[in-house]
Specification:
153 residues, alpha/beta, Lysozyme-like, five-stranded mixed beta sheet, two-stranded antiparallel sheet, 3 helices, 22% helix, 20% strand, Lysozyme
């Protein structure tokens, strides 16, 4: 068990307007590499924010400030044992270029999610995946967005 240090925001890196289901995430992450998956033992995210703003739990956790072994997801190499990960469906334009594709419902849901998380765990740093890996994910500047919604870390 480790102390929770980060909430990492992600995108699914799928085209704008294409919904991604929990089953899609499980298939992408858990299927063997030979079947087009990543071959992981656990999915990469605790929660997914759907196009309509619905937040769906992918991996249960006990909502405390610790990351128990059974809560670890595979969202960001080197950070998983001290992080929770949330993903929104989208993050690419129709040509698969990185783009902030959050719908108004996703923006509202993500803001509520992050504000609630920050209220409960003010010592946990909220970051984008691109702040700890050479990736475009989540396709927006998380720190700038946090300031725009009144969260200063």
């Amino acid at each position: 068990m480790a102390r929770l240090k980060y909430l990492v925001l992600h995108c699914t890196a799928t085209p704008e307007g294409r919904e991604v289901t929990a089953a899609d995430i499980r298939r992408m992450h858990l299927s063997p590499v030979s079947a087009g998956g990543r071959g992981w033992k656990q999915v990469g995210y605790t929660d997914i924010i759907h196009l309509d703003g619905k937040v769906e739990r992918l991996v249960d956790n006990n909502e405390d400030a610790n990351v128990d072994p059974w809560e670890i997801t595979n969202g960001a190499r080197g950070y998983n044992s001290v992080s929770r990960h949330v993903v929104y469906a989208g993050g690419c334009d129709s040509s698969m270029n990185p783009r902030d594709t959050r719908t108004p419902a996703q923006l509202k849901a993500m803001e509520a999610y992050v504000k609630d998380f920050h209220r409960r765990f003010p010592e946990v740093r909220i970051i984008g995946h691109n702040e700890v890996a050479a990736k475009a994910c989540p396709s927006f500047d998380v720190q700038k967005w946090l300031r725009s919604i009144g969260i200063y870390q």
